[in-house]
Amino acid sequence: MKPIDPIRVQKIIDSFLHKEVYIHLETTTGAYTSHHNQNSMTIVAFVRNAKITFSQGKIKGTGPYRVGLKTEEGWVYAEGLTDYTVDEQNRLLMAGHDRDGKLAIALQISETPFS
Amino acid sequence: MEERLLVILPHPDDESFGAAGLIALKRKANVPVTYACCTLGEMGRSMGKPLIANRETLKDIRKKELEQVAKILNINDLRMLGYRDKTLEFEDEEKLADHFEQIIREVKPTLLVTFYPGYAVHPDHNACGEAVIRAVKRLKREERPTVYCIAFSNDRFEHIGEPDVEIDISEVADIKIQALKAHRSQTYSIVEKIEEGGKDLPQFQQFFHKETFWIYPFDDEK
Q: Is B48 left (phi over 0), alpha (psi -120 to 50) or beta?
């Protein structure tokens, strides 16, 4: 992955417009957060292979970035994205990593299901 | 009876943190070791510094690391069971126990290592331990291996007391360090600390000098 170039990422997001796509959306504090600090909560959520179509998609902010996808009946939203790549299967993988390289959020878009 | 060790844990690297010393000692004594690793840790959070993995490539990276560690620990029989990281507790408990039971009946271990259900922090750890115990309970008493459980929840001593077994692993500490290092995608920050301060830092005493286990108390054996 490399640091997000918002102009480049916007073009890639646009390439998925009006198509049926699969998304992976995830956020995590790490499974051991409350074990290491009892005042913190462990929070993890992921949705893998939700099928959506979006009529508008934007990347906003000055970094870390936000991405919002307007779907037929709702929204997909992610904040805190720092890095991206397009892999060999033409999937757009975006993620937010902290200073130690730990993933805190991920939003991924693909025309085929994630394995 | 011929000694055999079976290790059933959910994530690549669980074995290196919790039982690498025991495994290495058993292999030195020529005891066969089977390691059944339930998932590939594909939902891990650490992606490397600099980033070497992403959510989609992490699975293959961790699989290769696990295979490398099996070589370092000289594990004879490595099995990757194909479950998905973070989802073990949502599988059908009986089916998961069926899978473990089949492996236990085939391997016929005299000693089995898993997590202590309820005292192993991560939901996958607890679910794995719970299903292993469920599977062992199905065996006749005389067929059951001794079960060494790994526990590290903050409330463990309060509920299950002091560990029953403390193993001095000093003579294989270097193998344990190598194994931890080989899980590079997940352990780089810990390895950094080890290399800065050496393995004698107080927080690493436990890691490189001893491993502790609780022997699971089956109700019907009391």
A: left
Taking only the tens of pLDDT, chain B with its 222 residues reads 799 999 999 999 999 999 999 999 999 999 999 999 999 999 999 998 889 999 999 999 999 999 999 999 999 999 999 999 999 999 999 999 999 999 999 999 999 999 999 999 999 999 999 999 999 999 999 999 999 999 999 999 999 999 999 999 999 999 999 999 999 999 988 888 887 776 666 667 677 889 999 999 998 765
- Write out the two tokens for B19: 């039982």
Is B122–A31 a contact, with Cβ atoms under 8 angstroms apart? yes
Domains and CATH numbers, chain A: 2-110 (2.70.180.10)
Here the ipTM equals 0.91
Q: A86 at the B interface (CB within 8 A)?
A: no
Cβ atoms within 10 Å of B105's Cβ, excluding its own: 12
pTM of the shown model: 0.94
Q: How far is A94 from chain B (nearest CA, A)?
A: 9
> In the structure encoding, which two tokens stand for residue B173, read together?
């500490």
The H-or-E segment that residue B93 falls in is helix B93-107
CA B63 vs CA A67, B16, B38, B109, B169: distances in Å: 31, 14, 12, 25, 26
Residue of A nearest to B49 (CA): A101
User: What is the fold, at CATH topology level, of the domain defined by B5-221?
Assistant: Rossmann fold (3.40.50)
Q: Residue for token digits 């699971």? A: B216
